[in-house]
Design goal:
The protein is α/β, with parallel strands linked by helices and about 280 residues long. The chain is built from twelve helices and ten strands. It binds adenosine-5'-diphosphate and magnesium ion (MG).
Amino acid sequence: MTSVIDIKEYTWRYLHTETPALNSIDLSIEEGSFVGIIGPNGAGKTTLAYSVDGLIPGQYNGIKKGTVKVFGKEVEEYKTGELQQVVGVVFSDPEAQFTAMTVEDELVFGMENIGLTIPEIRERLEWVTELTGLSDLLLKPPYEISGGQKQRVALAAVLAMKPKLLILDEPTSMLDPVSRKKIFEVLKILKTEEDNTIVVIEHSLENLVPLADQMILMADSEIILQDSTKEFFKESGLLLEKGVYPPGALHFFHELSNQGLYRGEYPLTVEQGKDLLRQLIQ
Ligand SMILES: Nc1ncnc2c1ncn2[C@@H]1O[C@H](COP(=O)(O)OP(=O)(O)O)[C@@H](O)[C@H]1O
Ligand SMILES: [Mg+2]
């Protein structure tokens, strides 16, 4: 398996700050995997996304130590714009990303930028509009749509470029539970149909956990825990200490287990929890 992200002994300190935002990070993410990153505010999650996208050190000043390789190449070695063709990042504040007068232009703009032909643009526009359910919004100005719709447009604009590595930094922070679910349905399709590598930074675990192959816990500028999703949530003591509440079903079985009422694997989803409970009752 090839590593899409390969980070070694990486430390980043923003200029004029006392402590590093990322401290001696080691991280390797394999091609095709779906990775969830969680952790309290200020842990360094967004800084990690900036680092992989080349915004650090490109757009931010600071002091860097160690290496950040993306697709085998150090981020600084990419030419301007070259890294953004293979890495797509959706940030939680979609407003900042919009430049066009209509949603359609917003989607087309990025594709023109990477030099796609008109037929290619037309085909991808149709694909991404369908996938993210934006057809009714195409002719609207981006500033006249709701926060949740903006987040979908931001996701669509990035998907239209078909980046091999997709990073979503709290992509559903402005969404109600239904729209949040929709975004994760899109991610599920991308996970199964395309062979993308997807990294999602997200507070809400309910939707993330069933999709994630691997989970990472960040806290205090460091990676505290990285494991397969099942193993990861066995460390519930450590997670709770860092303010991360495991998904409801898992937490419930953990409590049962603490009281000696259950022994065995914990479920990751409500569905799995229901099945387990049914077995226990019978
Ligand atoms: N542009 C910046 N300049 C200085 N410090 C920053 C900047 N952006 C983030 N930081 C600091 O870096 C640390 C990590 O922040 P961030 O990566 O945004 O964490 P998270 O996304 O996990 O909430 C925080 O202490 C934050 O205050
Ligand atoms: Mg953040």
